[in-house]
Amino acid sequence: MKTALITGVTGQDGSYLAELLLEKGYMVHGVKRRASSFNTQRIDHLYVDQHEKNVNFKLHYGDLTDSTNIIRIIQEVQPDEIYNLGAMSHVKVSFDSPEYVGNVDGLGTLRILEAVRILGLEKKTKIYQASTSELYGGMPENKNERGFYDENSPFYPRSPYGVAKIYGFWITKNYREAYGMFACNGILFNHESPRRGETFVTRKITMATAAIALGKQDCLYLGNLNALRDWGHAKDYVEAMWRILQQDSPEDYVIATGITTSVRDFVRYAFEEIGVELSFEGEQENEIAKVVKCNNPLYQLEIGSTVVRVDPRYYRPTEVDLLIGDPTKSKTKLGWEPQYDLEALVKEMVASDINLMRSSYNANWENNAKEKNEK
Ligand code: NDP
Ligand code: GDR
C-alpha cells in the first residue's frame, strides 16, 4: 500500500485528489489548518472514525509556514508521494497579502523539499508541486509558434501570487537537479468544479446564476469580462497530478485543455443553462448584460432586466489577459486525456449550485414558482 501526503487537502483539488488516491488503494494523509470554524466540508465524506480498524484517511493539523510541523508530519507519515497543493491561491487577494503569499506559496514549497532532505527521504519520497499558468502572465510574445504556452515558454508573473509560485517552481526544479530528488511541477491551467472556492470567477458566476434564477439575487457584479482563460475540470486535473508522479523520470508538465474562453462567454453559457439568453451592451465599466429571452417557465426573469454589471473593484492592479495551454506533452507522455469539456463543466456547476440553493433557501421553491406562474 502506497502512502501519500496532501497539503491543501481541504481545498478543491485536495478533495478530488484524496478521493482518487483512496480509490487507488493509497493510505492518504492530509494537512489541514486549524480554523475557528469547520473547514473540512469538501472531505467530510471521506473521513472515517479513527477508532475503526483499517483507517485509510488521516488528517494532521499543520501549516506551510511552520517548518517544525512540516518536518514532524513527514517524519511520522514517511510518504511515498507528497502533493504540495496548499497555498493562498487567490490572485486578487495576493495583492492584499503579498508577504503572506510569499511565505506560504513560495517558502512553503522549500519547507517541504527541505524536510524531505533533512529526513533523508530523497530517494523514497516523490514530490508534486502545484505550479500554475499564472507563471506565464499572459504575455503574448511568449507563446509558442502555435499560439500556446508550453513547458518551454518563458515566465512573466503578474501578481504576488505568480511571483511566489515562480519561487516554488524553480526551487522544485533546483532540488531535483541538485539532489536527484523526484520532484515535479505540474503547470496547471485554471480548473474548476462544483467544489471551486466561491470567490473565483466561475463559481461566483454559477452561484449567482442559480441565485438569480431562484429570485434570490438581482444582479451579479464582476470585474474584467474580457479576460480569457483555459478552463478544465478539477477531476481531470488531479488525475494528471497522479500520473506525473508515476513516470520513470521526474519532469514538469503543462496540464490544459488548449481552448480559451472569455469571462463574458462563461457568463453567457451559465445563463443558457437556466434557459436565459443575455445580450451584452456598453463597454469597460459601463458594460451590462440584459435578459433577452427566458425559455424556462420556472425562472421568472423579466425581459430587459439587467443581471450583470461591471464593478471595477474587482479589477486587478496587473491583469493576465489571456491564457491558453498546450497539453501535447501531457497527452503523449502521460497518456492524459480530459473527460470534461467546458459545456459539461458549466452544466455540472450550474446544476450543483441550483441544488445547493434550492435546499438552503427553500425546499419548496419549485412549487412556489409554479404557483406564481399560474397566478
Ligand atoms: P484552494 O484555494 O481550493 O485550496 C487551497 C488549500 O491550501 C486549502 O486546503 C487551504 O486550506 C490550504 N492552505 C492555505 N494556506 C495554507 C497554509 N498556510 N498552510 C497549509 N495549507 C494552506 O486551491 P485549489 O484546490 O484550487 O488549488 C490547489 C493548488 O493548486 C494551489 O496551490 C493553487 O495555487 C494551485 N493551482 C490551482 C489552480 C486552479 O485553477 N484551481 C491552477 C493552478 C494551480 P484552508 O481550507 O484552511 O483554507
Ligand atoms: P485566476 O482565477 O486569477 O485565473 O486564478 P479567477 O477565477 O480569480 O479569475 C479569472 C479571471 O476572471 C477575471 N474576473 C474575476 N475574477 C474574480 N475572482 N472575481 C470577479 O468578480 C471577476 N471578474 C472578472 C479575473 O480578473 C481573471 O482574469 C486561478 C486560481 O485558481 C489560481 O490559484 C491558479 O493558479 C490560476 O487560476 C491558474
TrEMBL record:
<dbReference type="InterPro" id="IPR036291">
    <property type="entry name" value="NAD(P)-bd_dom_sf"/>
</dbReference>
<comment type="similarity">
    <text>Belongs to the NAD(P)-dependent epimerase/dehydratase family. GDP-mannose 4,6-dehydratase subfamily.</text>
</comment>
<keyword id="KW-0521">NADP</keyword>
<dbReference type="InterPro" id="IPR016040">
    <property type="entry name" value="NAD(P)-bd_dom"/>
</dbReference>
<dbReference type="Pfam" id="PF16363">
    <property type="entry name" value="GDP_Man_Dehyd"/>
</dbReference>
<dbReference type="GO" id="GO:0008446">
    <property type="term" value="F:GDP-mannose 4,6-dehydratase activity"/>
</dbReference>
<feature type="domain" description="NAD(P)-binding">
    <location>
        <begin position="5"/>
        <end position="349"/>
    </location>
</feature>
<comment type="function">
    <text>Catalyzes the conversion of GDP-D-mannose to GDP-4-dehydro-6-deoxy-D-mannose.</text>
</comment>
<keyword id="KW-0456">Lyase</keyword>
<dbReference type="InterPro" id="IPR006368">
    <property type="entry name" value="GDP_Man_deHydtase"/>
</dbReference>
<protein>
    <recommendedName>
        <fullName>GDP-mannose 4,6-dehydratase</fullName>
        <ecNumber>4.2.1.47</ecNumber>
    </recommendedName>
</protein>
